[in-house]
Write a structure and sequence with these properties.
Oligomer: single chain
Radius of gyration: 16 Å
Number of helices: 10
Order of helices and strands: HHHHHHHHHH
Distance between the termini: 50 Å
Number of strands: 0
Number of domains: 1
Largest sheet: none
Shape: globular
């Protein structure tokens, strides 16, 4: 019963459409009608700029982190990683945005922040190094997942490794179109200030 209740809370938390809220409240636009049409942080950065993108990134990470903390709030031994996955599902298939959400990267990172800040720090460093070298957000996200899996394996964190493998596979699946565009050299690169 606890798992079902916590999973529902995590899903609803993940369903909060940060990019839509920031776009409509701060800029009077629906982010889904601009850029790639995705309601994730990357599209927000591209369409609305650095400030809006940073707010959406932080909000989406926070959704994953808060979801993993739900069992702590209730002082129960329910697996926090499992509950966090439901926030990712909520972000990707949000109830409050017609089940059309983001690509799960920031919220997945938030789960890791909630259970292992060291792995999270390695993920952030990896993401920005690969992004700097490749200029591809999608490629950076995928490689970050792989490096996080290797890190969890080296730390002998079996449960974390399993969840990271699932999340990384899900991120790869959500970026299938991006991977094809990278291969075809049509994927947009980011520009640095």
């Amino acid at each position: 019963m606890e798992y079902a209740l916590f999973a529902l809370i995590a899903y609803l938390l993940g369903s909060i459409p940060s990019a839509i809220i920031v776009g409509k409240v701060g800029y009077k636009i629906d982010i889904r009608e601009h850029g790639s049409g995705n309601m994730g942080a990357t599209n927000t950065f591209r369409v609305l700029g650095m400030k809006a993108g940073a707010i959406v990134s932080a909000s989406d990470i926070l959704k994953g982190t808060l979801a993993t903390c739900i069992p702590l709030f209730f002082e129960t031994d329910v697996n926090r990683l499992v509950i966090g996955i439901f926030a990712v599902l909520g972000h990707t298939y949000p109830l409050f945005a017609k089940f059309r959400g983001g690509k799960a990267v920031a919220t997945s990172a938030g789960i890791i922040l909630g259970v292992n800040p060291i792995v999270f720090a390695i993920m952030i460093a990896t993401f920005f190094v690969v992004l700097y070298l490749s200029k591809y957000v999608s490629l950076s996200s995928i490689i970050t997942g792989v490096i996080a899996m290797i890190t969890a394996a080296l730390m002998k964190e079996t449960g974390l490794l399993i969840v990271l493998a699932l999340l990384t596979l899900f991120v790869v699946y959500r970026h299938t179109a991006n991977i094809k565009r990278i291969i075809n050299k049509t994927e947009p690169k980011i520009t640095w200030m």
